[in-house]
Amino acid sequence: MIPDAVSxxxxxxxxxxxxxxxxxxPADLLKQVELLVKEAKRGDPQIRKIYWFESPSEVRxxxxxxxxxxxxxxxxxxxxxPPDKTCGMLAxxxxxxxxxxxxxxxxxxxxxxxxxxxxxxxx
Length: 123
Hints:
The chain is an alpha+beta fold. It has helices at 5-18, 26-43; strands at 47-52, 58-65, 79-81, 92-98, 119-122. A hairpin with a 5-residue loop joins strand 1 and strand 2 (58-65). The protein is globular and about 35 Å long. 23% of the residues are buried.
């Protein structure tokens, strides 16, 4: 069976962006989390919660909002954004959007830990 091109591109993209992970101080990671939370709330005032899954090399956030439809699968899929020093993003960022009905029920991306590992950074 030949894997479909979309799956291959998705896996390559995740691998490529993960290779961009750099050494960032905990203080800089926290600043990036705060900036991303502020911008997420500004962009979607109906966000119910944002969870932060700590990592020494990247920011990992899950936003819970009514403004997405339930995914229908059991896996949270994150969008990854490369570091951009010009706007204060020194580390790789992984951001996932989930419907409230999927909170605590869907599996997190590999390496993110479990829902119980998260810190609530917006409620």
